[in-house]
């Protein structure tokens, strides 16, 4: 985990009013029906673990920088227009987010698609920010969805693993 990476990401999140608490709340809301005794602190821990992964940090930094460059009109030609307008056929923003969620298995990947479609909470706020003000969040809204879905996958897999260990222990009795 790179301290500099996380400081940079945190600073950029603050500029956009993105908090770990907002991200963790979306994770908690989506998983509470599936994980008995889930606490918001579990969701916070899962989000923090996802953010500590180097590949996630790198994808976030690319996403943030591309959005920042688009906000300054510093991308070349048609790329500037595609990123600035968040064209539905552009798709590279989703590809980066999908590859990120893929680090956490099929649950995270399918959850990412669902989140990208319904845009709950902070994802919707970022999407609306761009639509209403022109402030580009083309890549970052998808990356926040990827962080949420990855944390959901992490919780699901950890719960499944602990359930399996418990069942195996009971069978051995």
From TrEMBL:
Transmembrane segments: none
Pfam families tied to this protein: PgpA
Example GO biological process: lipid metabolic process
GO MF assignments: phosphatidylglycerophosphatase activity
CDD domains: PgpA
Residue ranges occupied by any YutG/PgpA domain in the UniProt entry: 45-155
InterPro entries reported for this sequence: PgpA-like_sf, Put_PGPase, YutG/PgpA
Name the UniProt record assigns to this protein: Phosphatidylglycerophosphatase A
Species, as recorded: Weissella coleopterorum
High-level lineage: Bacteria, Bacillati, Bacillota, Bacilli, Lactobacillales
């Amino acid at each position: 985990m790179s301290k500099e990476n996380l400081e940079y990401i945190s600073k950029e999140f603050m500029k956009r009013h993105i908090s770990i608490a907002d991200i963790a709340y979306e994770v908690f809301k989506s998983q509470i029906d599936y994980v008995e005794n889930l606490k918001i602190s579990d969701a916070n821990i899962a989000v923090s673990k996802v953010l500590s992964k180097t590949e996630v940090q790198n994808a976030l930094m690319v996403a943030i920088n591309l959005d920042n460059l688009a906000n300054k009109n510093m991308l070349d030609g048609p790329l500037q227009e595609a990123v600035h307008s968040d064209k539905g056929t552009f798709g590279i923003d989703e590809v980066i987010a999908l590859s990120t969620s893929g680090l956490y298995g099929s649950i995270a990947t399918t959850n990412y698609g669902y989140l990208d479609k319904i845009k709950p909470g902070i994802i919707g706020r970022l999407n609306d920010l761009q639509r209403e003000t022109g402030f580009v969040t083309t890549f970052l809204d998808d990356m926040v969805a990827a962080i949420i879905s990855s944390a959901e996958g992490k919780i699901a897999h950890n719960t499944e693993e602990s359930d399996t260990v418990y069942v195996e222990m009971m069978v051995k009795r």
